[in-house]
# Entry
Amino acid sequence: MVVSGPSGVGKGTVIAGLLARQPHVQMSVSCTTRAPRPGEQEGREYYFVSAAEFERRQGTGELLEWAEVYPGVFYGTPQGPVTEALAAGVDLVLEIDDQGAQSVREKLGRRAVLVFVAPPDFVALRRRLTGRQTETPEGLRERLATARKEIRNMGLYDYLIVNDQIEPAVQALEEVLRAEHHSLQTTDWRGLQARLLAQAEHDEVASHG
Ligand code: ADP
Ligand code: 5GP
# Structure
């Protein structure tokens, strides 16, 4: 499940709410060239790497997708955990930007579900982003400019969640996850189909002798 939307809209907050309700859900840990914020831990929020190391990973195919999210700042999703999650049927959440979401759609098609988190209005977005007190004035400008581009792409997503109040937004994300467990697009249904057809064949032979 790919969760995107403007910086400061509350993706992290809503995803944390989902994880509290659904502890089996795993998070994809991205690598980034940005510096850790106070309190961030290597391997928990991100793998913090140098520009040279990031470039190396881009070259080796270790990344499912990568993007220059802000000028000179790179982020990428390690491929390994995604491959493993798809094979094992584990729910994995990628909190990545819109460019990354579109790359994932290209690579995985509908095996990934794309969720766009929108603010109820732009004033709320600015208020949340400033309220978080993590950005410099320049960072704030970049994030709000990027937000416009991302909002233009919201029509490319499978689901839209408007994060007005936190709890209903968490509930909505949980509902998306539940619905996707029943989607033929994201479920490995062919095994069940083959088994049922084999049983039907057997059933017919048994009942008609
Ligand atoms: P993102 O991960 O999208 O960048 P965060 O989860 O860090 O955003 O949220 C940005 C700020 O907005 C945080 O201070 C968070 O507490 C606050 N926030 C999140 N959701 C809501 C909401 N529904 N109403 C008001 N504030 C919110
Ligand atoms: P932040 O620096 O605030 O942690 O994240 C900034 C932006 O980078 C967010 O919009 C987040 O979704 C995005 N991001 C985080 N990891 C990745 C990633 O692996 N790939 C892409 N494309 N974007 C990411």
Observations:
- The longest strand covers residues 63-70.
